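Follow-up to my post from last week.
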Amino acid sequence: MYAFVFKRLLLAVFTVWAVLTLVFVLVRIVPGDPAQVILGDQASREAILALRARLGVDKSIPEQYVVFMGGVARGDWGTSMVTGQPVIGEVLKVLPWTLELTLISVALGTVIGVPLGVWAAIRRNRFFDYVTRIVSLIGLSFPPFVSAIILLLVLAIQFPLFPVISARSGSFTAWFQSIALPALNLGLIMAAYVTRVTRSAMLEVLQEDYVRTARAKGVPWVVVVWRHALRNALIPVITVVGLYFGILIGNSVLTEIVFNRPGLGKLIIGALNQRDYTMLQGMMVIYALVVVLVNLVTDLAYALADPRVKLQ
Amino acid sequence: MTHDAPQLDAAPRSPLRAMATQLVRAFNTNKTSWIGLVVFVLVVLAAVFAPWLSPHDPTDQNVLQRLKPPSADHLAGTDSFGRDILSRLLYGARISLIIGIASTAIAMLVGSLIGIVAGWYGGRLDAALMQAMDILLAFPSLILGLIIVAMLGPSMTNIIAAIAVTSIPPFARIARAPTIAVKEREYIEAGRALGFSDGRLMGLHVLPNIFPEILVMGSLWLAAAIRTEASLAFVGLGVKPPIPTWGGMIREGFENILDSAWLAVMPGMAILIVVFALNLLGDGLRDAIDPKLRGE
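User reply:
Got it. Predicted complex:
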């Protein structure tokens, strides 16, 4: 087990290094001079030179690379070119909003998706199964901002049950009202994924010999399904939920924009619109680190749940 | 009921025919795929014949006809510049389809090539290529797409490139696994004994065998690409106005959401219909082709 964890950690460190290098390259593929792009055609030569120095792009590429990597290693993720604040500070300021939203969505997605998937697998090729499959496929087909707009139209404008702008205030009711629609939007889309994965994992597990053995021994069907089969079917579900994280991040960006809710999504779109390259670079590093971390945790959880993994 | 042709596990006589047979069989196994295909073909036709089908010029502004709800003259209403929404929807389909199909085709080509080469040669090359794919996967695809388009500028070529880059890894993975299985087959051995080059074996004998699977994934990723293009356009990184795009129309419509909801809802439904049709198509075919589910 320790060897597996160690190997996996080493791989994660390598991935982080490669990801950082890729970010470094990506930010430098901007055609032309970034300082010129930021300041526009009217800018004076002095202003451009000053900004080049501030951005650090007056140095050679290898020098820039060393400065960049050194900064990341020391926890210095750069300074926003627009606000002059450290990127990490700006990110930490809005992170709780995004974290809260994504965690509640993951919980919603799992709580709705797993039972539906199990139920559809048991009712395979019957009415309930067909309906679940079609509805979950529609859920997967919704661009997250379209479903968000529809929720907003129906539940905030047509029937004003929830506020149009999602920002929390004091009481629990206010908090609940503000998070309900964005979380519902992300949660339902995720539930569509989870339902489908759970269904196909359950279909596979239900054909296994030990399920037949348990049935032959006279274990009640409910116990076989919910305890024996589901426990094994959940392993691939964990992996998919982990892999889904990258999609969830993208979806949360779009959801935050529609509901005008503070968070990483609004931060990154603001940085894009203001051409705040250092902010973008820092945020990309943070996003990639989070995804690598989530993948690592998923892999370890997988190993914990399935003893066969450790032997490989 | 359809009668499956007897399955012979010998070398296929013609790779193309084997491929076609497998696809038709897959379509017939899961009839919902036909529905997806028909809807998708209708959308493609609507996009191709947009200049003939559109009642108005999609960029013609008419201040007197601003924000009109659907009527006989404007079947889907008008936007805040008085432009006909139906015409913009039809022309917008072109952008969605061109960007979606081009980026998916590139991703399919490059991804399959990487996957086949990795699976065929194995060893270090395999490990290095797959590790590179994992690194690409470490970026949330929408964020990676956003950054690439923001850095390079929102032109059609750049958007296609950005979406293609984010969709390469899944194709590499899908192509790799069956390549490993296929390369042990007898007819590959035979080809090798006849002195065929690796390139010829991979291109003419491995690719046709794994192509149906790649094509099925292609339809699912085309759906994803169309969604990503719309998402990019929605955050302002779409093809520049006045060229209509569905995502851009939703963005403009969202500004008038309180009094003219149809502006955002109509293009939203258009995206949903296309993506759902493609998912229906790909999902049904995948179930039929997936060896794990076959023969049940």
